Amino acid sequence: MPKFNRASLLVPLGVVLIVVMLVIPLPTSVLDIAITLNITFAMIVLTVALRVKDPLEFSAFPSVLLLATMFRLALNVSATRLVLLHGYAGSVISSFGHFVVGGSVIVGLVVFLILFIIQFVVITNGAGRVAEVGARFTLDAMPGKQMAIDADLNAGHIDEAEARRRREHIAREADFYGAMDGASKFVKGDAVAAVVITLINLLGGFIVGVLQNHLPITQAIDTYSLLSVGDGLVSQIPALLMSLSTGLVVTRTSNQADFGLDLLSQLGKQGKALELGGGVVAFLGLLPGLPKLPFILVGLGMFALGRRVSLGQARDDEQGITLPTDISAVQTSQDPAVSDSAIEAIELDLALDLLDIVDPLAGGDLLERIKGLRKKLATELGITLPPVRTRDNISLPQGTYVVKIYEVEVARGSAPQGRVLAIGDNLASLPGEATVEPVFQIPAKWIPLSAKAQATAIGATVVDRVSVLITHLAEVVRTHAAELVTRQQVKELLDELKKSAPVVVDEMAQSQIGLGEVQRVIKDLLQEGVSIRNLAAILESVIDRSKVSRDPDQLLDAARAGLGYQLALPYIVNNSLATIEIDGQSEHYLYGSIHINEGRSVLVLSPEEAAALVRQIEEFNENAARQGFDAVVVVSFRIRTPLRRLLDSYGCHVPVLADRDVSSTVRVVRVGVVRVDATAKV
After folding, report:
1. CA 405, 410, 415, 416: dihedral to nearest 10 degrees?
2. What digits encode the pLDDT tens for the residues 217-247?
3. pLDDT single digits (tens) 622-646
4. 397 near 439, Cβ under 8 Å?
5. Is the per-residue pLDDT at 530 higher than 50?
6. DSSP per-residue string spanning 110-139
7. CB proximity list for 103: less than 8 A, separation 6 or greater
8. Which of 77, 82, 85 is CA-nearest to residue 94?
9. Is the pLDDT of residue 326 over 50?
10. 259 with 51: CB under 8 angstroms?
11. In 3D, which of 496, 545, 487, 533 has the Cα closest to residue 514?
12. Where are the strands (E) in 487-646, listed by range?
């Protein structure tokens, strides 16, 4: 049983007390303490807003804003009650009404209105707009940020735990800005409520003083109106601090240091600007008619500060490290022992202007990231991929790369020199060439490096060209993984398995299952995007089924049955699985349409029936994607394999699972039911 934490009761208790304050009159001494606490809390929140490096470090701020607003309104209600009943609401409000504004109602109202304009017109409106735009841009940039995380994961720069942490950070960021968009409305409503409450207090105090207590008009104004203005100022000052905190939190664009250090660091790099500004102000002091002392004093002080900063920058530059200007030629052949006549399993051809991403002296890390990619895919798919041969190709257009599988081009993309890829939906204002991200097909634009800050400011995700290339290469390798599995690799996999599960390998030999049959099962699984990391379970099921049948489809079904619920894991999100199903009558019809062709089961349907079936599945899948789901087709295991082949032949790559692949503990979300009898009418 978790240990009870008394601190967890503070917030609920505070909320209850706020509600109590709305109903029960407070003694003036308690009200003084509560008002002081309100101002203190607003100062603490402002200090925290200045100190945080990342808005998510203060992710509780939207809720804090709501509670602080409610607390101020409760104080207004309590103060109004005391003012109207007793003509006195404590020493704090009395001091603000008499001392701060000099005992003048007019001065108090002017000061109050100025504070209201500053808060409502300037700070609150601006912070609300920034929060609204930040929420929209954050949501628009989520796909691109996810792609950037996938690129780093594929390149081996981060592990699964770090990728998960970054994805959670992106989700929290979107939630935070969405909450801030709504919380800014609390601040705006609080500012309006303060004005309305003050006006009501002025009118109510005048009526109570003159009509109920029979005071002279001047005495009623002096007693009640000043207290009402004092109450308005007492509530308006912490409200202004909270509004300022809101603006500071939502406008933070750097997470390198707190706001103070960040500001000093950036100003400290602009010595010439400080000198120029100080010189101009000092010159203004020399003009006739202007006071000389303040202008000259401030101008010379600023000029001296800028001069000191400039001298410090010059010393740092002299002590800096001089980079070499000579960059040796790029060695494009990464393995001299490999003959030019050898056929490589995977080749990456680069245009001449892309060789800088290979050269370590030029900061290129492509080769290291390819090594990381091979390790990542080996962990993901369960097979060791062959090395990627990287070479230059003078026939390629500038900025172009080509991926080849056994010398056959399977993918082509671009990574222009001196450019980065901006991904998002609001790229029209950016300079560069419009394109589409090659893997996720997201609208993008190749922009100059100088426009990177501009792209980040509008919420676009900026990805360097090596990450784009690596992500594209990873997707190509996943798609063609089955083609890359050779019998030699299967032999190496079995030799490695023999160290941990020798009984399985020995039984496979006794059952006279050849490498070719194992290779064919592995290829079929990889073709469907199934990892073979649990090779022992796959082989155990294949061995058992081989005693009954050596039919390739039978062995594939056995291998999938051996993996069981693992097959559905990649598609389950929050214990939910979005499914496209086929009704019972249609499944029976499809089962009767199965024919065996060269040892493979296929569905024999008319072209119209097949096209309509595929179209229904694609439409349901697109609808699910628009709702944020990755759907899978779930059918009986008897028709799963031939249905998968039919979809592949039409270029429809929606995953197909058997109903036995889905655990009963998983929540199934049905996104559509396909009916073949409807397609027969087409």
Report:
1. 110
2. 666 666 666 667 777 777 777 777 777 777 7
3. 888 877 778 899 998 888 888 988 8
4. no
5. yes
6. HHHHHHHHIIIIIIIHHHHHHHHHHHHHHH
7. 97, 222, 226
8. 82
9. no
10. yes
11. 487
12. 576-582, 594-597, 600-603, 632-635
Between CA 150 and CA 167 the distance in angstroms is 10
- Distance (Å, whole) CA 105 – CA 229: 7
Strand partners for 573: 576
- What's the Cα-to-Cα distance from 46 to each of 186, 189, 290, rounded to whole Å? 17, 20, 37
CA distances from 210 to 82, 219, 222, 502, 541 (A): 17, 9, 12, 101, 95
Q: Quote the tokens at residue 186.
A: 């609390």
Dist. CA 402–CA 393, nearest whole Å: 9
**435 token code pair:** 């394109």
Whether residue 227 contacts residue 94, with contact meaning beta carbons closer than 8 Å, is answered with yes
Output 151-155 pairs: Cβ under 8 A, ≥24 positions apart: 151/463, 151/467, 151/468, 151/470, 151/471, 152/467, 153/376, 154/373, 154/376, 154/377, 154/470, 154/471, 154/474, 155/369, 155/372, 155/373, 155/376, 155/467, 155/470
CA dist., res. 73 & res. 68, Å (int)? 9
User: Angle at the Cα of 417 (from 415 to 422), degrees rounded to 5?
Assistant: 55
pTM for the predicted model, two decimal places: 0.54
The Cα angle at residue 491 between residues 489 and 492, in degrees rounded to 5 = 65
Cβ neighbour number for residue 97 with a 10 Å cutoff:
29
- Domains in the chain, ordered, with CATH? 24-123+185-251 (no CATH), 259-279+291-311 (no CATH), 346-482 (3.40.30.60), 485-565 (1.10.8.540), 572-682 (3.40.50.12790)
pLDDT > 90 fraction of the chain, expressed in percent and rounded: 4
Structure token digits, residue 274:
């400080």
- Residues with Cβ within 8 Å of residue 79, at least 6 apart in sequence: 31, 35, 89, 90, 93, 231, 234, 235
Identify how many contiguous H helices and E strands the chain contains and give both numbers: 24, 14
C-alpha to C-alpha distance for 223 and 94, rounded to whole angstroms: 10
Structure tokens at 242: 């909270």
Beta strand 419-423 with 443-448 is: antiparallel
Phi/psi of residue 573, nearest 5 degrees: -125, 125
Where are the extended beta strands (E) located within 607-666? 632-635, 656-658
Strand, coil or helix: what is 633?
strand
Q: Are 204 and 82 in contact (CB under 8 A)?
A: no
Encoded amino acid at 608, one letter: E
**CA dihedral angle for residue 122, residue 125, residue 129, residue 130, rounded to 10 degrees:** 50
Residues 448 and 437: their CA atoms lie apart, in Å, by 16
DSSP code per residue over 188-216: HHHHHHHHHHHHHHHHHHHHIIIIIS---
The DSSP code for 418 is T
For 268, phi then psi, to 5°, come to -65, -15
342 phi and psi angles, rounded to 5 deg: -70, 145
Among 130, 55, 46, 151, residue whose Cα is nearest residue 423: 151
Rounded-to-integer distance, Cα 303 and Cα 279, Å:
6
Q: Are 313 and 270 in contact (CB under 8 A)?
A: no
Long-range contacts of 53-59 (CB under 8 A, 24+ apart): 53/254, 53/255, 53/256, 53/257, 53/258, 54/252, 54/255, 55/173, 55/176, 55/177, 55/180, 55/249, 55/250, 55/252, 56/169, 56/172, 56/173, 56/176, 58/249, 59/172, 59/176
Compute the distance between CA of residue 661 and CA of residue 568 in angstroms, rounded to an integer.
6
180-189, 271-280, 448-457: least confidently modelled range: 180-189
